[in-house]
Design brief:
The chain is mainly α. It has two domains: 102 residues, no CATH class; 138 residues, no CATH class. It has a two-stranded antiparallel ribbon. Helix 1 crosses helix 2. The chain is globular and about 50 Å long. The chain starts with 8 loop residues before the first helix and ends in a 5-residue tail after the last helix.
Length: 278
């Protein structure tokens, strides 16, 4: 019988340090956004734009390797244009740019003898999440909502990782993600709910029951995004989307759940706007 694989404490330490550095930068940019003066919004805009470009690089290398450079340029330009249009409040134009960017990326992929749909999907995958992120932070209590989003996502990730490794048990979806378990899934949801409630209690005018429901929805979005990226990586035959973040892999490996969760939070933000959960 093969011995059980021991927990990699060294890698966990690297993951923890990387996570603290990234979280500090993200939260600093989020709360600077809420300060008076447009200059304070620049760190958040730069953070989202740099993240969008890094995601474009990773996606192009993973999905369209024969035309990676061309696909990276097209996808990056489309994503950055969408981010700046959203930042200026030109949301109709930003959504239109997503469609045009996807078309351009499909053409670029086809010219490199890659599947056009793989090129187009990079824009469709990355740009809407970036757009909605910019929209969310610009709404009333935007820094609070964005903090709740980040806390919910991070806590769901950490809870799933810790509980899953501690309890193990039946696999959640072994075909695409053999390391994830049902115990980790439940642990992640509970952690996401608790984080959402904690942020709402400290920073926001929001009922705790409503925050709990939002945390549950955000946790489910986080798990779905993580599983979806695992399926994509399995499709393209890669273990990680990149290696830029020590202990975590690529940027996409770090924000896969966030890209789904931000869409869930956008829906809940609209619901709250019209009177629910106050």
């Amino acid at each position: 019988m093969r011995p059980a694989r021991r927990f990699d404490w060294a890698n966990f330490a690297v993951r923890a340090v990387s996570g603290v550095v990234l979280a500090s930068a993200a939260l600093g940019a989020v709360w600077a956004f809420g300060l008076s003066g447009k200059l304070w919004r620049a760190p958040f805009l730069v953070l989202i734009a740099v993240g969008g470009v890094l995601l474009s690089i990773e996606w192009s290398a993973m999905a369209t390797p024969k035309g990676a450079l061309r696909a990276t340029v097209v996808t990056s330009l489309a994503v950055v244009a969408v981010i700046f249009l959203a930042f200026l409040g030109q949301f109709a134009e930003a959504w239109a740019m997503i469609g045009l960017g996807a078309l351009a990326a499909a053409i670029a992929a086809g010219a490199a003898a890659e599947r056009p749909i793989d090129g187009a999907y990079g824009v469709l995958y990355i740009a809407p999440a970036c757009l909605v992120f910019v929209w969310l932070i610009g709404t009333p209590q935007g820094p609070g909502w964005t903090t709740m989003l980040l806390a919910t996502t991070w806590s769901a990730d950490i809870g799933a990782f810790v509980v899953g490794n501690a309890l193990k048990g039946p696999k959640l979806w072994p075909r695409f993600s053999p390391n994830k378990t049902w115990a980790g899934f439940v642990g992640g949801l509970i952690a996401g709910i608790l984080a959402s409630v904690a942020v709402a209690a400290v920073f926001m005018r929001l009922s705790l029951a409503g925050a709990a429901i939002i945390g549950l929805a955000g946790g489910l979005g986080t798990m779905a995004g993580d599983l979806w990226e695992s399926m994509l990586k399995r499709r393209f035959g890669v273990k990680d989307s990149g290696d830029i973040i020590p202990g975590h892999g690529g940027v996409l490996d770090r924000v896969d759940g966030l890209m789904f969760a931000v869409m869930v939070f956008a829906v809940t933000r609209l619901v709250v706007k019209y009177g629910w959960a106050h």
